[in-house]
Write a structure and sequence with these properties.
Oligomer: homodimer
Shape of chain A: globular
Structural class of chain A: alpha+beta
Strand order of the largest sheet of chain A: 8-10-7-11-9-12-13
Number of helices of chain A: 10
CATH superfamily of the largest domain in chain A: PurM-like C-terminal domain
CATH topology of the largest domain in chain A: Phosphoribosyl-aminoimidazole Synthetase, Chain A, domain 2
Helix content of chain A: 25-40%
Number of domains of chain A: 2
Order of helices and strands of chain A: HEEEHEHEEEHHHEHEHHEHEEE
CATH architecture of the largest domain in chain A: Alpha-Beta Complex
Chain lengths: 367, 367
Amino acid sequence: MWPQPHRKLPAPSTKPAWGLTAKGAKTVKLKDMGEFALIQHLTRNMRAYDSTVVLGIGDDAAAIRIAERKYVLLTCDMLVDGSHFWRERITPGQLGHKALAVSLSDIAAMGGIPRYVLISAGWPANLELEYAEGIYQGMAGLAAAHGVFVIGGDTVSTPQLILDVTVMGEMEEKPVTRSGAKIGHVFAVTGSIGASAAGLALLHKGICAGSYFPETMRQALLKSHLLPQPRVKEGGILLKTGRPSAMIDISDGLASEVHHICEGSGVGAEIYLSRLPVHEDVKRAGDLLGKDYLNWALHGGEDYELLVTLSEDDVFAVQKELRQLSVDFSIIGKVVDQKNGVKLFLDEGKAVNLAKKGYDHFSHTPD
Amino acid sequence: MWPQPHRKLPAPSTKPAWGLTAKGAKTVKLKDMGEFALIQHLTRNMRAYDSTVVLGIGDDAAAIRIAERKYVLLTCDMLVDGSHFWRERITPGQLGHKALAVSLSDIAAMGGIPRYVLISAGWPANLELEYAEGIYQGMAGLAAAHGVFVIGGDTVSTPQLILDVTVMGEMEEKPVTRSGAKIGHVFAVTGSIGASAAGLALLHKGICAGSYFPETMRQALLKSHLLPQPRVKEGGILLKTGRPSAMIDISDGLASEVHHICEGSGVGAEIYLSRLPVHEDVKRAGDLLGKDYLNWALHGGEDYELLVTLSEDDVFAVQKELRQLSVDFSIIGKVVDQKNGVKLFLDEGKAVNLAKKGYDHFSHTPD
């Protein structure tokens, strides 16, 4: 689903004005723009809605008020071979699972219940049927686990493998957006962060079984990246127990999501480095690969955990509920006035600006 | 949206059983299968639904019963450069229009009202921003004409241009499917058929302005192919006035759609060649290009007209309503017992089997 556009367009003085190709001006190519700026620009005239559209472009999912106490949520995510995954480094079952998981996570981030799925697939003509079957088996497994039904889709032929998964969800209450964070509330996050990026680093380095890397740890980190578990149940518990003022799923990296909430809500943030829930495996993997694990935790993305703002009083009740699912729920900071900015407090008490950079599939490659 | 799978899978005796790769057996590639067989095969274990799913995989759109007298329709269609369109032969505005039109047409074919749109786009990095803007302008124009809102989507980078448009529609009554045709009812079709395929033939032949081809006619045929008008209003009128027993939009060609209705409904058909509404321009274009215009009309596809079965008594009332929109509504045949097969009655009264072949983007190229 389209994330909230947050980058300013380049100033017209340095580049030709968007939409205009002044004679002699250099033509603007899409690669010159980031994903967010492009979305912002292309949809700038499409944001006038009627009263049924509770949420349009700009959150994890769109929301429609369809009847008394009935909201419909819609989200879609497109995954492309060579950009969002590498066919030779993921099993078809994992790929199918992940393609569905990222959209289920968007529904979870609104507090909704995913219900129905459309699968659009672009297949290379030379792909083996067995591989396509594996993808559908991976999707079917995750769909069954969440009680969602595949009700349609489309199938075309494309040079590279493409999966676009649309999920429709439902909820009775108004969805939780990224725009409601209240000063005085705390930031809290489900599970732990950084493991997916560590797993991706293992894939990039081509670390195989039998290497110097401890196998159990390698498997666990790869699983975090290749088989993310959308926090659907947790989203429902948060909605009921935690009364969150804002919620978002961590697809682009924790820092980026904190910024999304702050920009959407018009608030600032204090995030405490010492409170970030990072698994020991992630720290050790950082040591072994000579990488900064904090970079993974803050900017790696694809953790698909839920980042929430809620009152500190509600945190305990949520923790109690989530403990029954063996899921941690950690306070990592607090919501402050916008004028204080978005700060990261280091272990020594020193504060730095929290860099916004997340993972942008459109214009960047991961570190 | 996935069409109804209608081809039988190849017998296991001639090819390895699907899902099994027996040692030494030739691996099955996707190109060895047709689009319909592939969908049928991949989704074979995904068709167990709960009672909210009124229509799952297999019609123009899926349908969910979401509340008392409230159905939600969902459909998506993926268009790929080089397969569904050729970037050098369509303006970006036309492309945006068409990408949305095909999905609006799916909603119209159920008798529904399209309401909300998600746009997933895969952009080549080197594409000019102006081109992308043109696509969105084309979509925005058609969306505004039908009062639908673009509420979300996704944006990724891909080698070739890809648009996947999901449309959500609504209706108060139960949707009209392709499966309800009643013996004794007639087949009728809105507008005329074959013009889109004639326009495609002009594109393929590269017939430009200033050629021997009459320019007004050339423009009209190209418009039929490049700027199809989804029959949304007409679908609503048909639902209210015509009480259709079955309805489908003509995306794959009239013959193919007649077969879809017959297979879905367990009936046969008599189609009368002399009754097919084919515009004079289409016949003349056939003469000029040395092509059989009937092939365009029967098997060309992308007309996006509505093919309906209804009682002959209701036809007049529908014609009266549609005349106010300057839209023809022609009886082209009748629904008969399944044992009579699907026949095309030629002008001399001789009947032949109506070949099912339609346009299959996945495994064929058009003639």
